Amino acid sequence: MLEVLVAEHAEVLFEGLCHPELYAFIDERPPASAEALRRRYERLARGRSPDGAERWLNWAVRRGEQYLGYVQATVAPAEHASIAYVLFREHWGFGYARAAALCMMALLEAEGVRRFSATVHTENARSRRLLEGLGFSLRELRPSVPAGPVDEALYGLDVTRP
Fold this sequence. Notes:
The protein is α+β, with helices and mostly antiparallel strands and 162 residues long.
């Protein structure tokens, strides 16, 4: 279901990432072109932030021959990963985001991650339900900009070692 994201995925993910509804609750815009997306994926494929402090892990989500979107994790020191997911609009509501997130989290747990977090817009009920269904709990409500309205919900999940 998950494939390590590489530059070549830009061609198969571009069209699905152009749907404006995907960006209703995130501070991004659709990719300008498949080539721009390819360049972004080339940077992400390096696997590290420019200062080297964080690992950037990204996967394309696939079901059979069909690509459904992507999941990603920013892994920081102290066994912590911040996760995100973007599934194409036509695949919402079928459990694919849940399955992809669980698969990604299992991979990260196998690498020693014990704390997960995710930040979502407070009005993104679908994403909030997904996180709660995965066992995440609401940790904090905060503004996305200083002194702005409260519009971000920070969720967290601590994994106990077996």
